[in-house]
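Handout, page 2. Input:
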Amino acid sequence: MEYFKNLWELFVDMSFYMIIGLIFTGILHVFVNKNLILKHVGNKTTASVVKASVIGVPLPLCSCGVVPTAIQLGKSGASKGAVVSFLTSTPQTGIDSIIATYGLMGPLFAVYRAIAAFLSGIFSGIMTNILCKNEEATPEKLKPSGCSHAKAKTKSCGCSHAKAETVNLSFIEKLKSVFSYGFGKFLDEIAEHFVIGLLVAALISTLLPEQWFSNFTNPILNMIMMLIIGTPMYICSTASIPIALTLIAKGISPGAAFVFLFAGPVTNIASVTILYKALGKKALIIYLASVAVCAVTFGLILDFIINTFHYQGIAVVGQIHAHEHPGYMVVLAILFGILVLRSLIKKYTTKKIDNTCCSH
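Output:
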């Protein structure tokens, strides 16, 4: 019973902020011109690396959509550095995860997470451009796979979230599209990972004693452990929040929890093979090494800031609440639960179409 109690409390805590985040996700999807993004990022200058990182921080791309979108950037003329910058900054955050992080882990964690995503994207991109000069970002023979958010004409074995052609929509139609995308297609993509994240977080909360991680006193070893756990996992930036929240409640340092928040969404085993073909061995090694170095570095800096200024906000917010939730949060949690359940049912009942690897 304690497990389900912890699960419910986590779900209620997250639902309110997830709803807000999904609305903003829909707004970005509908009102941001994707061709304009390609125009700014699709060149081989250092400025394109910075722009790719800036664009990637708030962009609401699901975990499966990051890789094919990055490949499309390469096909549009972007340097390997810009592609790697986009790959590094985009999965770490999104407007939905930033809002959820703010609500559950406090303003410092939310702002720091966005800044770390931005700076790490620039670092990894510049390092790639320096060490991989005059190399094409994407071989023409490569066809992106997964869930493509690029133009519909791009071949993929997934689903495209772009329009095949530009259509002028009224404001009301755009408003409908905001909700249909945020609570439809995008939620369909993250629902499974969101639920898995909650289930794992509730399990950790139930099985591990309070302050269990305080027995491991070496902060760097803790961060390396989080890096090893997070790197091969397939988890989105939002689904990683309840796990990190629970780890902090069990005594791990905020910096070590941040390493998990950083590395978990950025890398996973499934994407590595695709990136190997798209970027080549050298660029892939630079990408993975940059992720590891940046994750641990930003984790150490976060712990230093918190310890130096005796910041208590994360420790206070980062607890699994034992008190009763306001009525409106319970109502919103029930509504959001219905939407998540609908997405899961749609995912597992929709028949697979030939040559597709994801269906919504």
